[in-house]
Write a structure and sequence with these properties.
The complex is a heterodimer of chains A (253) and B (262). Chain A is mostly helical. Chain A is 84% helix and 0% strand. The chains are: A mainly alpha (253), B mainly alpha (262).
């Protein structure tokens, strides 16, 4: 525990030092202010833009798209994983497919999706689902593989109905793996949606950043960038802590 | 491991193999049918059907223009991948041996892995300027972290006896890496290379799709902008085909490395 604390302390110090170094380099002109603005300015710009309310619509747009993609990916991925897990024959087909799907840069489908579905929320949601669902599917498969047979035997001995077996035995046993899939799904959905908005879109935070870049508004660009990164880090951090909490509770009980 | 498989092998292994091949063929046909359905449903406005795409692709492969763009992407990608692999390997080995440094660095790297790096691309452009070096830097930003994390994990999980043996034999740090760590971590390293390969390709392609004048990513976006549907579909087909082929090759190499280390 003390070692973990020490690591946390050093990590915080390293990050703070890097931010401080960047601030000094920008303030003294070692780094051209036209390239990177000082971190304190980024923060001030972020606060300004959030206060002004001009971003409210983009924020709502982006996060509702991400949430929708995440929910669809988790639902669809879990269902597909459970289905494939039941049939070894499907599994033989799905395993190599999933392994090679990972290597395909899903993002290149985005222009095709835009042409297919029109510019707007739909292609972004599909892109988010395409990038996130396979991760959920893989973790569902490995979670279900990890349920030890003796637990299923126990369920049979107690004559649990399939629904109860699922709810009381399979789900708790598979939860840690499932959870790590959900964690990946959130960050993939977030990356997919924001990248889509950035490259080709008319709304959202990704679009706002690319718009600020193209109109040479560095201050706005860095403020927005900081906001998106902070939200991403916070969301992932919450899931990370939650996962640790689940694991600890499990090892205790 | 292999004994176990042999013991439990069903009596008719070839028939299972045949079923698998059959299923794979059915899957391929399904994908083609879906592609054809989307193509005809939209009447070629968004996606051109498989046969037409293939014909177009063969014509495209004969043009000088295509190879010029492909070469731009390939150069950027190869440099980005090589840098990711080498730097990632070195960092992973160092963070793996120096446990405390590893504990400090790992959450930072994992956090960087999960953020939408595309938002940082304007910074890369401002720092490196438009052109090849920005694309390479962006590819490295995507490919470096997974390579580091995989190597780090592999070194950390090594049986301590290997590292102690290296110490007893008084191997220099360089030789310890070359003769002990890298061979022992080979399966994980190949896995890291595989992930790093696809992510650095993704980085380079995204870089090309956003403000670039050359490369397959540019060709794809340009095809969309000019409403040249067969062109963009053909480019997507090429990229998907190449990445699946490279991935399968590396999966096979990884399997061989795992068997050898067992």
């Amino acid at each position: 525990m003390t070692r973990r604390r020490a690591a946390l302390f050093v990590r915080t110090a390293v990050l703070a030092g890097l931010v401080g170094l960047l601030e000094i380099c920008c303030r003294t002109g070692i780094i051209d202010p036209l390239t990177v603005i000082p971190p304190s300015d980024m923060f001030a710009s972020m606060i300004d833009h959030l206060r002004s309310g001009e971003l409210d619509e983009s924020i709502v747009n982006t996060f509702s798209t991400i949430l929708l993609a995440f929910v669809l990916a988790v639902g669809g991925g879990t269902l597909a994983g459970a289905l494939v897990h039941r049939s070894p024959r499907l599994r033989d087909v799905a395993d190599p497919l999933l392994a090679s799907y990972y290597s395909v840069p899903t993002f290149i489908f985005y222009p095709l999706l835009v042409a297919l579905l029109g510019l707007g929320k739909a292609p972004l949601v599909v892109l988010g689902v395409l990038s996130a669902a396979p991760a959920v599917m893989i973790s569902t498969l490995s979670g279900l593989d990890g349920v030890s047979p003796v637990l299923l035997k126990l369920a049979r001995v107690h004559r649990l109905s399939p629904a109860r077996t699922l709810w009381w035995i399979v789900l708790p046993a598979a939860l840690p793996r499932l959870f790590s899939g959900f964690k990946l799904a959130l960050s993939y959905a977030l990356i997919g949606v924001i990248a889509g908005e950035f490259i080709l879109s008319g709304t959202g935070l990704g679009y706002a950043i690319s718009f600020a870049y193209q109109s040479f508004d560095n201050r706005a660009m860095y403020g927005l960038m900081l906001f998106v990164l902070l939200v991403a880090v916070t969301a992932n951090g919450i899931l990370y802590v939650w996962e640790g909490w689940l694991a600890r509770r499990r090892s205790r009980g | 491991m292999s004994d176990f498989v042999l013991e439990n092998a069903p009596p008719s292994r070839t028939s299972r193999g045949r079923v698998r091949a059959f299923d794979a063929a059915v899957l391929a046909l399904l994908i083609l049918a879906l592609w054809q359905a989307i193509g005809s449903w939209t009447q070629g406005v968004a996606v051109s059907p498989p046969l037409q795409t293939l014909v177009y692709l063969f014509g495209l492969l004969r043009t000088w223009m295509f190879w010029d763009h492909a070469a731009a992407t390939l150069t950027a990608f190869l440099v980005a991948f090589a840098l990711s692999a080498l730097i990632g390997l070195a960092l992973g080995l160092i963070f793996g041996i120096r446990r405390f440094a590893g504990e400090v660095a790992e959450p930072i790297l994992a956090g960087f892995y999960t953020i939408p790096k595309v938002t940082l691309y304007p910074v890369v452009l401002l720092v490196f300027g438009l052109g090849m070096s920005a694309k390479i830097a962006f590819g490295v930003m995507h490919g470096l972290v997974p390579m580091t994390l995989f190597t780090l994990g592999a070194v950390r999980n090594l049986p301590p006896v290997l590292i102690r043996t290296a110490k007893v034999l008084r191997l220099s740090p360089g030789r310890t890496m070359l003769w002990v760590l890298i061979p022992a971590c080979m399966p994980e390293i190949v896995n890291g290379l595989r992930i790093s390969f696809s992510l650095s390709l993704l980085g380079v392609l995204i870089g090309e799709m956003f403000s670039s004048q050359r490369g397959l990513g540019f060709l794809l976006v340009n095809g969309m902008a000019q409403n040249n549907v067969p062109l963009s579909t053909a480019v997507v087909t090429v990229i998907v085909g190449v990445s699946i082929a490279a991935n399968s090759l590396m999966l096979r190499l990884g399997g061989r490395a795992t068997r050898r280390s067992n």
